[in-house]
Specification:
This protein is α/β, with parallel strands linked by helices and 506 residues long. It has 16 helices and 11 strands. The radius of gyration is 24 Å and the shape is globular. It binds pyridoxal-5'-phosphate (PLP). Pyridoxal-5'-phosphate binds next to helix 7. This is L-2,4-diaminobutyrate decarboxylase-like protein.
Length: 506
């Protein structure tokens, strides 16, 4: 542990590590089937006589490194794991994460005379807000979560609380039924377009139900399906007996596109929400990071589309994706700390009171989030924000965008593939996701498997307008634009031509 805590040792280790990690970028995206089989058969068998007999720690460590590790995906190690939106792990973040376990802080009560942990969390949340262009004076409610799903649950829980309180109900005290009866509300609706699946999950968790989520996209007008139809939102807000949460996707998960077109749309939604007592939640899990891009021509459109997020009542940010800290880490911001407290207050536990006199402005995390006891998960994010700063984060994200755009350009002009969703759009609409399909329907049917079988590139399958499609989501800090572009395009070409892919040719 001494080595681990020595800055000198860490300095050389991190430098070597950074290099090793870059070299590791050709690490297979998926383990071989044989590794998966032998790992599974190495798991303890309940009918074995040795089941749950003590094992020497070194043997446990040997088993884990020899059997378990080789049977995990290479999502952190490969630079071309493009499934879901996973991010990777910056070496410094990995080190900080190990320190989190080492110190094992329980970040639930703000105890500034005993630990600086809550102040570090607040500092990380403030730095992140600053790089994302959010005013912490406005976003007084902020906390760390387990990820974007966790943050979306907080967002809908706060929305539910606020929209009913405005009509005289109080969910935190009365429960949803009692609050709805008191407020004269017969339905709470979540109005969205291209909402992430976790939004429906959140709606179920907070008692609104998955069916409360209404897709109000502009598709019916023949436009982009991720775009929110604000006229339709207005119509829904007017429905009698309802209370509403407007959930904006800033970026939609299949396309990376934005549900609203920047400030003008957001101003209109803000005015509507104020008029009808609705709550605006922005799911900016990865899309909000468009706001860290430098002010350059190539990013003008993205920066414009990501404007106005600051007008929301609550905002979801993911840490373990674009920020490249380890799982699990998400952030939640709201302009209404009282609403957050009204939902999450952990009442009447005298032994958990903080009695803090310094930093009295930092609320105890247990009163503003789902958990009581929890991990000091801000530390890796704190480390990344400090080490990268504004410029480093801008570079991190722009590298991702540049590779994504080059791949989109290849797909657009390729004879084998069709770029989706709107191939006519120029590069400037592309953020970190490429959606496409093979022109040959037989190939399209097996495309995900053919690509993933190379184990040098991993993609997710999805469905787009009723047909299979493939998504590439670029979110790893290891992106090497030129080399990754060469590998990706030779994989896509080999797969389309029915040839074996050969990494050594790249
Ligand atoms: C990934 C993602 C989520 C879910 O995030 P988790 O971190 O997996 O909980 C929610 N919304 C969007 C837009 C996402 O991309």
């Amino acid at each position: 542990m001494d080595d681990f805590l020595s800055v000198e040792t860490q300095q050389s280790r991190l430098a070597a590590y950074q290099d090793a990690h870059r070299q590791d970028r050709d690490h297979p995206t998926l383990p071989p089937a044989s590794a998966l089989r032998s790992a599974e058969s190495s798991l303890p068998a309940p009918d074995s006589p040795s089941y749950l007999t003590p094992t020497r720690p070194e043997d446990v460590a040997r088993h884990i490194t020899a059997d378990i590790l080789p049977a995990l995906t290479g999502q952190a190690r490969s630079s071309r794991y493009y499934g879901f939106v996973t991010g990777g792990v910056l070496p410094l973040a990995q080190w900080a994460d190990a320190l989190v376990s080492h110190a094992d802080q329980n970040v639930q009560v703000h105890l500034p005379s005993q630990t600086v942990a809550t102040a570090v969390e607040d500092s990380a949340l403030r730095m992140l807000a600053a790089v994302l262009g959010l005013d912490v004076g406005v976003f007084g409610g902020r906390t760390l979560t387990t990820g974007a799903t966790g943050s979306n649950i907080l967002g809908l829980a706060c929305g539910r609380e606020a929209v009913l309180q405005r009509k005289g109900g109080d969910v935190g005290e009365l429960g949803l039924l009692g609050a709805c009866v008191k407020a004269g509300v017969t339905e709470i609706q979540v109005l969205t377009s291209g909402g992430h699946s976790s939004l429906s999950k959140a709606a179920s968790v907070v008692g609104l139900g998955r069916r409360s989520v209404r897709e109000l996209s502009t598709t019916s007008r023949g436009e982009e399906p991720w775009r929110l139809d604000i006229d339709a939102v207005e119509e829904h807000l007017k429905r009698p007996g309802t209370a509403s949460i407007i959930a904006i996707s800033a970026g939609e998960v299949n396309t990376g596109r934005f549900a609203v077109d920047g400030m003008e749309d957001m101003r209109r939604l803000r005015a509507l929400a104020d008029e009808y007592g609705a709550w605006i939640h922005v799911d900016g899990a990865f899309g909000i990071f468009a706001r860290v891009l430098e002010d350059a021509d190539e990013y003008r459109l993205l920066r414009r589309q990501a404007q106005g997020i600051e007008l929301a009542d609550s905002i979801t940010v993911d840490g373990h994706k674009v920020l490249n800290v380890p799982y699990d880490c998400g952030m939640f911001y709201t302009r209404s700390l009282p609403t957050l407290q009204s939902v999450f207050t952990n009442p009447n536990a005298a032994y958990l009171s903080s009695g803090a006199t310094s930093h009295p402005d930092i609320p105890s995390p247990l009163n503003i989030g789902l958990e009581n006891s929890r991990r000091f998960r801000a530390l890796p994010a704190y480390a990344v924000l400090l080490s990268e700063g504004r410029a480093g984060l801008a570079r991190l994200v722009s590298n991702m965008v540049r590779l994504t755009r080059r791949i989109a350009g290849f797909v657009r002009t390729s004879g084998h593939y069709d770029l989706l969703p709107t191939p006519a759009d120029g590069d400037e609409a592309v953020f970190i996701i490429v959606l496409f399909r093979a022109r040959d329907p037989a190939l399209n049917d097996v495309l995900v498997d053919r690509i993933n079988r190379t184990r040098q590139m991993y993609v997710s399958g999805t469905s787009w307008q009723g047909e299979k499609a493939v998504r590439i989501a670029v979110s790893n800090w290891k992106v090497d634009v030129d080399r990754d572009y060469r590998v990706v395009t030779s994989i896509l070409t080999a797969v389309a031509e029915g040839r074996e892919f050969d990494l050594s040719s790249c």
